[in-house]
Amino acid sequence: MIVLGIILLVLGYVLPVPLLITLGWILVVIGVVLFVLGAVGRPVGGRKVWF
After folding, report:
1. Which ranges does the record mark as transmembrane (predicted)?
2. Other beta carbons within 10 Å of 39
3. Domain boundaries, the chain
4. Inter-residue contact 29 to 7 (CB < 8 Å)
5. Cβ atoms within 10 Å of 42's Cβ, excluding its own
């Protein structure tokens, strides 16, 4: 999710499309939150580990 967000951010800044920039930031933030929750051992979505 983080990688997809970064790709959308880059595309949004290369092609000046505000929607891509907004979606990219949202995906990056959600990805970082899920990563941090998973790293501290808190179950995310009923699972302790995402494969």
Report:
1. 26-45
2. 8
3. 2-39
4. no
5. 9
